[in-house]
Amino acid sequence: MTGGGVYYSFVCVGLNSSISVVSTRTGTGKTVVLGIDKYLAPTSLDSFDLFRGKSVCGGLFGGLKPKLDIPILLDHYLKKELNLDSFITHKLKFEQINNAFNIGVFFEKYTD
Length: 112
Prior knowledge:
Homodimer. With 112 residues, the chain is an alpha/beta fold. Helices cover 16% and strands 11% of the residues.
């Protein structure tokens, strides 16, 4: 289908068992892992694929550098250049915090 594999593949599942470089192109293929299973949990890859020029890299927080980037983002928010408020879909009282982990929170509207 791809004529030799894709140039980039993205693993977004967050399970170590889903990390694979099989679908990437030999010599130049890169797999970007965007989710992690358990912190510092070991993973295994087929070494033959790595020796054929395929590579794997991770993207923790999308490459955000917290000490540098968060103050910049905060400044943009305070200047109304970054609209984060539109992402708030529900407001819960502290007593309702467990509802946030229930799928029903997306169907019920909670307000102050």
